[in-house]
Amino acid sequence: MEKPHVSKRSEDLLEAILEISSEKGYAKSRDIAAALQITPATVTDGFKRLAAAGLVHYEPYGGVTLTKNGNVIAKRTRECHQVIRRLLLYAGVGEDIADRDACIMEHGLSPESYEQLRRVVLFLEECLKDEDIILLFERIVFEGRKKT
Q1: What are the structural domain ranges in the chain?
Q2: pLDDT by residue (tens digit) across 14-47?
Q3: Which runs of E-coded beta strand occur in the chain?
Q4: Among 30, 79, 85, 87, which is 20 to 30 Å from 101 by CA?
Q5: Closest residue by Cα to residue 106 from 11, 21, 1
């Protein structure tokens, strides 16, 4: 999974475009600004940079859609976020904190680390299908959390 250099802000924009355009077919700067809690002007500047990099199709005052390369980066960023979030939830972190921390961590993760974390999450999900393992897991993870 080769990872081209894209800034954290650009990855956030691409991920937000993916989420919003999957519902509407396109995304507008006001939708992205609301989702990311940034100004529409900041979003527009980001759209221009992404368009120059060939990652989005952007028309001023219109919608924005992902190019093939933009879609690849957006999906990879979203998948990485989801894997880290699930791992943090399994570790007993609350949902809001897990989501916020996953957003921070997703950007610097190497493809190798992402793949290994993905495998760990899959392993945990398989293990947690067993009732005895669930009880042991909860005792270790959640009782340990109460002590800290």
Answers
A1: 1-148
A2: 999 999 999 888 889 999 999 999 999 999 999 9
A3: 56-58, 64-66
A4: 30
A5: 11
Query: 70-109 burial, b if ≥16 CB within 10 A, otherwise e?
Result: bbbbbebbbebbebbbbbbbbebbeeeebeeebbebbbeb
Question: Do the beta carbons of residue 13 and residue 43 sit within 8 Å?
Answer: yes
Residue 121 tokens, joined: 């999450």
Sign of the torsion formed by the C-alpha atoms of 49, 51, 56 and 61: positive
**Bridge partner residues of 57 (DSSP):** 65
The overall pTM is greater than 0.85: no
Q: Which CATH class is domain 1-148?
A: mainly alpha
Query: How far, in Å, CA of 63 to CA of 103, rounded?
Result: 25
DSSP H helices in 91-128: 95-105, 111-127
pLDDT digits (tens, 9 = 90+) for 116-133: 999 999 999 988 888 888
